Amino acid sequence: MTKKERFAFVLKYFEEHAPNAETELIYDNPYQLLVAVILSAQCTDKRVNMTTPAIFEQYPDVYALSKATFDELFPLIKSISYPNNKTKHLIGMAQQVVEHFNGEIPATVPELITLPGVGRKTANVITSVVHHQPNMAVDTHVFRVSARIGLTTNAKTPLQTEQQLLQYIPRDKVHIAHHWIILHGRYICVARTPKCGECGLRPACKYYQTVIRKQQ
Q1: Are 16 and 36 in a shared domain?
Q2: Residue 216: what pLDDT?
C-alpha cells in the first residue's frame, strides 16, 4: 500500500465512523478554550474539565483573568500538572491579550505563539478548533499514532510529523483529522498495548501488518 493509499483508507474510515469528532475539552468561547488548552499540557482533558469551571466562574473573561494574582489563581489549578508555571502563564497570557490584542484572543498562529504558555501545538489547536484553519496540532497521541500506522516516516519531531501529515490530508479536513488521530490514540491505538483487535484501520496499518500479524 502506498502512502497516498494509506491516507485515503484512514481518512475514509474516520469520515464514516467518527464524522463529528471534536475536542473533549469543555469550553464556550475562544478565551475558555485557550485557558483549557494551556492547562492540558501534560495533563488529561478529564482533569482539566474538572478544574476549569471554578476558574471560569471567578474569571469569566480575559479582562478578569488579567487582574488575577498568583495567590488567587494558584489554588484553583493546584491539582493540574505544573501548577506554578501554568498559573504564571495564564495570568501573563491574559495580560498580553488585553494589552496587545484589545482583549480578543488572536486568530493566527504567529500571534498566538507570542503569548506566555502558548507554543505551536497550542496555537494550532486554537486556530483549527475555533477557526477551522488547516493547522495540525501534534501532541503525543498524534506523534505516536501517525508513526505507528505509517502516515509518517522517520519523523523525529512534532514539526516533522505536522509537515508530513499536511502533505496528504486535504486542507478542509485538517481540523477534524487532528481530532480523529488524537481520539484514536486515546482510546484504541494506546501507547503500551494498542487494541488492534478493535481497530478498523488494520488493513492500512503498518504496525499491524509488520508486527502483530507476524506474532500471530
Answers
A1: no
A2: 64
